[in-house]
Sequence to fold (606 residues):
Amino acid sequence: MRLSLPACPSSAASVPMADLIAQGPEVTQRWRRTLPIDKPVTIGRTGGLWSAPWDEHISREHVQIVFNGSKLRVQQVSAARNSVFVRGQAEREFELSAGEHFVIGNTAFTLSADAPQVTLDIPKPDREQAFSAADLRRVAFRNAAQRIELLSRLPELIKNAATEGELFVRLINLLLAGVPRADAAALVTMDSLGTAGPARVLHWDRHRLAGGNFQPSQRLIQQALAKGETILHTWTGTQAREFTASESVDWAFCTPLPQEACRGWALYLAGRFDWRTPGGPDRSDPSDIRDDIKFTELAAATLSSLRELNRLGRQQAGLSQFFAPVVIEALAADDPEKVLAPRETEVSVLFCDLRGFSQTSERSASDLLGLLERVSRALGVMTHQILDQGGVVGDFQGDAAMGFWGWPLAEPAATQKAALAALGIRAQFEAAAREPNHPLADFRVGIGIATGRAVAGKIGTADHVKVTVFGPVVNLAARLESMTKVLGAPVLLDRRSADVLRQNLSPEVGRVRRAATVRPYGLASAVAVNELLPPAQQNPEFTDEQLRQYEAALDTFLAGRWGESRELLQRITAPDPVKDFLATYIEEHDRTAPAGWDGVVTLESK
Fold:
């Protein structure tokens, strides 16, 4: 039995949708694209999707075409060099009906009204065969060099396809070039496998312009997708052949595309065998088509793998809004459950709070969206510096952000990276403050950094979890951030962080000094508080000599010699809020240390 296809609709019929097919002298110099209705399109050697770059006889812009749903109107651009031929005559302006074509140089442009229709109305095949990957590995290409060369174009084909529709066009062109005996090729999809819903044709094309309509088999598509293997149907009965070769097909196969990125997609090809010629061999054996199936399988696997990489890339880009790059890298290398599982580790924690928000919000009561945009921008400065130094953004609390280092991978330089992030945040806000019209000019920041053991990972309840860090060190960092308001220092450190930075942070990057030993409001334990300062070249008013003078004043303060401490503090001429805090405390206590003085300043407020 031989499968007959319906005749092509007559050119006089109304054409609600139509394609324009460009065909150059080489089989690969081709495209088929659906024409927009009543929208002008320019065809030339350059110009995007509608260009024919292979033909030097075509000008950069050669003709403008408009399809009205029935006829294609073609008008030559005045600057075009070579003539446009239609019906054997050179014409500058003309109309085409479906099935007609015009020629520029060595390229023919045909208006096609035929459209594929997925159908169940296909006679039962004489033979059905499934091809596994193991079967196809044993198949040798008859023209291996040509097919390998075609497959090597797939990565560039995907890379240069500006849209998914253009990718479909290029893929089908490649299949037709690689399987010359195929009458037609299509990329098809089924949204719901195993249901009665019809398959859809995403794009298709054919070798010959004449012939019947292309009718992919719904049953064959459904079988191939359900089984996950290429299925071949053949119609090779020995009864008298009542149809010509141009109006019929002998075989059709459907190859599913693997990988999640192409779920429900398949490649469908249909064509003819090389039938017995006088004195020649019978070429109607279905095994003769196995290398065509192998080529299609390789194209499907290559396309799927490349699209899967693109999908994972987009997925990773989407995850970047929720996970820091260091977390995404860890997730890519190991089981997510293992990576995100909470565990105890050594971390450095940074808390950063926005100052000036309350006053700004009062002034911006009539423009809350504008205020939200400014606060988001301020938080963006914080998160950018945290992420740029390889940290993890653990939480947002209103107008404050928390970041940490040391998870999911151990980080020997965690404290240094936290310090660099803090200095970067401070520098950006100070630069904004020097520009009165800057959106962040009204804001300041307070930053606290602490280092110690904590539990980090996916923490929360059965209903809600987040990637964050938990433990006393987190509370200490938050306390230090709160103390910046009392001491007037933008960045405060706990003793452990300060000790690490004194040993590992170059003075050209940042400086560390002791600030005071304080008992935070509501706590019984004392905390040795240190300040992180920019290098001298970025803060020339506060020299290294004045820093040493403050340290000397602090030593006498801790020793209870407050009069001496006051005199040393007065020698510091540079603006210094921490010096002012200590001097004020001395004055409030009549310049005399109390009985039993232990060197600890008790804070009366947060």
Q: What stands out?
A: The mean pLDDT is 83.
